[in-house]
């Protein structure tokens, strides 16, 4: 049986996590998991660049289609788009992704509240939207049952 394939797509958090994982991994260490991970993280990406990340993941030679796609995006978009517009954009992009990979499960990694955002932006206001949007995304991508 072929190993399961997991794609982790997102912005700088994903890039940093992949880098940190490489640092922690010992050379020639065996794993009991039969899972192949493809980490595609690019700083500054937003939900509308999800297809670019998919194309990047597809470019990995010898890697089959994913069984699971984990998306960590949206945190860079919330200030500019607002919660409702961002929710609609996420729904649209996930719908496209589900059509491209009908056999893959799609999971949403919650956006992380931030302490600093930019001049004149109140983190508390944005972080309320983060919590609400994360709750809405949990309904859209409920995960395994």
How would you describe the overall organization of this protein?
43% of the residues lie in helices and 16% in strands. The radius of gyration is 16 Å and the shape is globular. 20% of the residues are buried. It is α/β, with parallel strands linked by helices and 145 residues long. The protein has 5 helices and 4 strands, in the order E-H-E-H-E-H-H-E-H. Helix 4 runs parallel beside helix 5 (123-140). This is SGNH hydrolase-type esterase domain-containing protein. InterPro entries: SGNH_hydro_sf (IPR036514).
Write a concise keyword list for the protein shown above:
145 residues, four-stranded parallel β-sheet, SGNH hydrolase-type esterase domain-containing protein, 43% helix, single chain, alpha/beta, 5 helices, SGNH_hydro_sf
Task: Record the SSE blueprint.
Elements (H helix, E strand, L loop, with lengths): L3 E7 L1 H13 L10 E7 L8 H9 L9 E5 L5 H4 L1 H18 L4 E4 L14 H18 L5
Parallel strand pairs: 1-2, 1-3, 3-4
Number of strands: 4
User: Overall mean pLDDT score?
Assistant: 79
Radius of gyration: 16 Å
Q: Given the helix and strand composition, which structural class is it? A: alpha/beta
**Order of helical and strand elements:** EHEHEHHEH
**Beta-strand residue fraction:** 15-25%
Q: What is the topology, as strand order, of the major beta sheet?
A: 2-1-3-4
Uncertain stretches of 5 or more adjacent residues: none
Helix content: 40-55%
N-to-C CA distance = 24 Å
Shape: globular
Q: Major beta sheet, specifics? A: 4 strands, parallel
Question: Helical segment tally?
Answer: 5
Organism: Pleurodeles waltl (Iberian ribbed newt)
InterPro entries: SGNH_hydro_sf (IPR036514)
Protein name: SGNH hydrolase-type esterase domain-containing protein
